[in-house]
Amino acid sequence: MSYARVKRTHRKSRLGCLTCKQRRVKCDETRPQCLKCQNRQIACEYASKEGAASPKLISSIASPFASNGDTSQFFDNGESQHGRDISFLELLEQSSPVKCGSERSHGHCAVRDTEIARHYLELAAPSLSRSSARSEQHWLWHVFVPSLAYVCPTARQGMLTIGAMSMHFAASDGGLPCSSSYLSTATVHGKAFVSQSRSQLCRLDPEDVDSNTASARLLSVLAFAFLRQYRKDGIDIREERSWRWLHLLRGVNTVHTTMLKLQQNVNAEIKRDMMPDLFPYAQLSTLPICSTRGLLTLAYIRRTRTRRFRMLYAALYDGTLVFEGDAYSGALAALDCLARITDHICRWEEVSSLFRAVCMWPGSLANDFIKQLTRCYTPALIIYAHWLMLVALADDLWWIGDMGVAGIRAVVELIPKAEGKLLCLVGEPMQLMDMNAAKCF
């Protein structure tokens, strides 16, 4: 005799949070955050009374690290008008390094996205958090971005773009043929990400503060990742595309500054992470240098620092480096900032984030100097070459790669051989380039 199996009765959860519904697990309906989401430290969102998903700030995610207070005082030098100087938004539509011929089917996309998400969590996120000794960086990439990706399509597309770009470079460096498919996948997600983030960053709606913060962070990494792909494709620095990373970084800085000036509810851990290394920082941890090449590069930068900046300042004052009108003050400000950042990096025990320290210089450049630089004006490129020496310290970060040495080589090739005085000003960057080529490290 056979008996029909009777399903055991159980209490149904019809008012559970949207996150548990997406994960297909039973929700205990605890508000404002259910226990399952609290235990996993992920976003917990309930539907509104009208049935639509209500905006939820991920600022409420419990962080394992203590807050260090409001640091907005360190960001008073940016633009204060809402939306002003965010010209980089216009570049987002063309930011993807390649064009994808056809969209993938939904089924294939779902399988690939699962693979990419796993790669992000297992490899990409750890590599991003290792670029800084700050404890909140681990929380940013391992908790904040993935949690937001559960409920925010923009953050999801950005996270998948970074994951796919990381897979592409890993496969490419290993000589695997699948690297091109990962790049195409990154392009599909990247186009969706920049389109959605462009729309949100134009408004800077306070309800989207977490999504905007995540988008800005994701863009700062993708700016360098796309530039690395441009270099692989042979894009010359005389082409406009090769400077999009610079506009993106400056735009990211403007977004952060504007959000803080509007007193939007930026997560305390994100505020703390936005604090530059050049300012006092409580419980500072030093970033270790793991490679012999990095140690030798740092030693060379330290050894040549005084002579290099003495020559650059002298050349600016005596007219060897010619800048006219407002461009002169912009060049002097750029050189002053580069000198401060170089001194800071040379005191390595004070460096907690090399990526953050390196990004401070392009984020602070005046518009007049930017115009000279992107037009490949030789005096501006010479100052830029000395910044690239610092970038060479970060060549083990997959999204930066060989930007430092390759950039120095591109600058030197544009300086006429007859300009002996100008070539002398890039003598040390050239020496660093030659040491790298000869594998002295």
Automatic annotation (TrEMBL):
Record-level Gene Ontology MF annotations: DNA-binding transcription activator activity, RNA polymerase II-specific; zinc ion binding
Domain of life, source organism: Eukaryota
Residue stretches making up the Zn(2)-C6 fungal-type domain: 16-46
Keywords: Nucleus
Nucleus as UniProt keyword: yes
The keyword Nucleus is annotated on this UniProt entry: yes
InterPro entries from the UniProt entry: Sterol_Uptake_Regulator (IPR053157), Zn2-C6_fun-type_DNA-bd_sf (IPR036864), Zn2Cys6_DnaBD (IPR001138)
Pfam families: Zn_clus
Protein name: Zn(2)-C6 fungal-type domain-containing protein
Native source organism of the sequence: Dothistroma septosporum (strain NZE10 / CBS 128990)
Lineage: Eukaryota, Fungi, Dikarya, Ascomycota, Pezizomycotina
